[in-house]
Amino acid sequence: MDASRHNYGGSDQRPTRQAPTSQAQPQSVKYRPPHLRNQGTASGPGLHSPSVQRQGVGPSSEVCSTWRSRDPPSAPPAHRTSQLPSSPGNFGVELLKISGQQAKACDPKNIKNRTLPVTRPGRLTLEGKSINLLVNHFLVRFNPRLTIFHYSVDIKQVISHGKRPVKKYRNKADLRLIKDKLFLDDPARFPPNRTAYDGEKNLYSVVLLPTGQFRVELSDNEDLLTRTYVVSIKLINDLKLSKLEDYLSGKVAHVPRDILQGMDVVMKENPSRYRIAVDRHFYPSSFKAEDDLKHGIAAYRGFQSSLRPTSQGLALCLDCSVLAFRKPLAVIEFLKEHIPEFDGAHLDFNLRRKVTNALKGLAVRVTHRVTKQLFTIAGLTAKSTSDLWFDFVDPKGRDPIVKVSLVQYFREKYGKNIAYQGIPCLILGRNNRTNHVPMEFCILTEGQRYRKELLDEVAQEKFEEKCLAWPPERRKTISEMMQAHDGPSGDATQNFGLRIDKDMSSVEGRVIGPPVLKLGAPDGSLDIVRVENEKCQWNLAENSVVEGKQIDRWALIEFSSSVSLKLKAKDFIKNLRNRSRSLGICMEEPLVCHFTSMREFSSVSRLEELLRSVIQEARRKSWNTLQIMICVMAEKHHGYKYLKWVSETRIGVVTQCCLSIHANRGDNQFLGNLCLKINAKLGGSNVELTQGLPHFEEDDHVMFIGADVNHPVSKKSTTPSIAAVVSTVNWPAVNKYAARVCPQDHRTEKILEFGSMCRDLINNYFQLNKVKPNKIVVFRDGVSEGQFDMVLNEEVSDLKNAICDDSYQPTITLIVAQKRHQTRLFLENAGDGSPTGNVPPGTVVDTKIVHPFEFDFYLCSHYGRIGTSKAVHYIVLWDENSFMSDQLQKLIYNLCFTFARSTRPVSLVPPVYYADLVAYRGRIFQEVAKEFQSRSVPSSMRSSSSTSNFTTFDRSFYNLHPDLQNIMFFI
Predict the structure, then answer these.
(1) In this structure, what are the phi and psi dihedrals at residue 808, rounded to the nearest 5 degrees?
(2) Whole-model pTM?
(3) pLDDT exceeds 80 at position 937
């Protein structure tokens, strides 16, 4: 029985069974691991470093021990004691010898020279007081004699009668369902609990599985046609855990990424069976009562995890996360919660629009019949349920076509009486078929995200509180998730021979003391300030900036003259001048005061005309151009990007924006922050370090470089990424920066113009200081472990090729700063930290939870006021300046006190912080460029499917005005 044109309530045809085909027998094939086929790219010309230049390493001998909990580097395993030195400083040299000996046995065709990250040096001193910490790293014990078999899985649907070509399915839920059906039908050959599947192409097993092609038949219920799939399974690798043991022991230098990736899938197998998977996070199917955000939305507490090789062995790093989901309610109940005026009786025009916006695109399942199918809401029917009729067709052709109402059809076919007949039905779409189903028979499926930006103010505040959990609460939540039955430690994990400790790793950290600062004194001299409070904060109430700029050519543009919150201009100017004077910044009366409205932000041309007119008016009163324009806005406005692009690329005068609501209050702290930004933008110096930076001499000329790439969302495939590089221009204060920004190919992480941008900055340093820097420290942001090789072997090579010649050979250190990691530090004793429960500023950890032999550490440089502090993970990839561990840690911590617009140490080393700001400014320029580009293309071309013209970008949109290239316009 079927209905013509539309399928009301689902199909009623009987399933057709097909006989399964014969299954291929497994084959025994030996495969060479991928990391031995290609050992990476050769280091570029001009690379010279005391870091180890090492050969690729071949297969190592198997370890005979059955279970092993990794020992720290200070107590190496007995079988390698004779090969490892007692001094950590020579570790890299010995590792080179070991690697070279083993590489001789390898096929030279499969080995390529590559530069690897430097190894960890020793310390000069153990500066700082010790502090006992707990870290969310959980030790993983594994059997090094075990082999995990890696298979590729390819699933295609078989379409009979040649109606459609074979289709490849890519939905993870569908693919996992098909794979599970194959395994459940033949558990003897496909043991489910001894395998792990990533939901796409990769399958891991501790036993050999049959290979070949296998037919799987699925149906959602007895009334639907059976769908037939072909599952192709192929063995591609055997992962010997002995190689991971050798890497953790330092016997081989190349990380076995294929093994770690396979073990990571194994760790995620148990939660993937019981929890909702969102990207790399796992969330429960239910929420706690206190996490209800109302309006049909709830906060779900989940976790994310990753495997990390550490000095104490393989560790699972697990951190909790919070995400907002729609509750899995009946659609009617969801609408009653989500839209208060919805009563289920009828929909007027406005209410219909709200209901459509709330439901369109959501996934539902139906309750009037037994099925596992999921449907997507395409919209609402034009008519109400009681007015829906359709042509009923007898599938056997015995009865004529008759008109049947939807209400009658559901009553006779399914025995269901429709209660809400005055509202429309849902239009459900699946497989190019349309279904009209009453709302009361549809339930929202679980795991449907709700953007936090759409939450109302109350719900958003509540959600933020749950995301920013205090340390004791976060620590408790992490421990609970490790103990949970649906956590990473389950049957699947144990069947792979893995055992996870349920207790957090204990580690001894150190708290580095703050540096001594230099500020201005009331009498105009310099004052020495010792920061001794727990927040490491200094007060500008009794001090001033080190170097205040004379501001005698500035303009005030007030954009709030037509609104109720218009600026009290005279009071604002008076308060701003008084506050600047107290900070040692001499600010005269403005040359121009221009009053207008926010309408000026409506277009680029209109705003540019306004700014040029203000500049022209100022020139009539002074021969020199304006130093700065202070723009007071009535509200935050999308035209802000027009202002910044015009002023920084076309006109060449810096701007400082603020809101009139804040300006009218005349708050001392607000005015102080405004003055710090203005002084830094104009080349002043707000704070300096009294003593020189560790490891460097006063007569050294050291340049600090920060580099970052800002990527657009992946869906915007024609939008460029933005590369930004900043560098210091003064020594030894190192608190003034110049910046360069450049667009590049979409989502390309490598900075394509890195060498030329750095060369330009070095030439600028030479023009200002009459000498080139002889030492360079580069901080790179935004790269993961998998991109270290690219940074080390490509970007560093590009840098050296661009700046080095016979007469100029600076020593270079390259450090990666990682913010996006899951490692969290907790106080073992609450009394050791701040009242918030966070670790104190200056906390550093460089043992146990760090890499087994490479040079890295965790540094928490800021005071945690909200939530749980996150330390930054610093990884040294390249070091020609021969840093000791404590020297580099102290240097980075001291630099965090030099951030221009803060009176406390910041969480991230300033070169990286500034590079982030510049990259974001480049993203603003890109948005303006995109608008110009779209206007220049006819609407007919913009609406067409071809967007190849948008893949290019005009670099002139991103070129900074020459007057702003070497000042901190981005603060």
Answers:
(1) -135, 110
(2) 0.85
(3) no
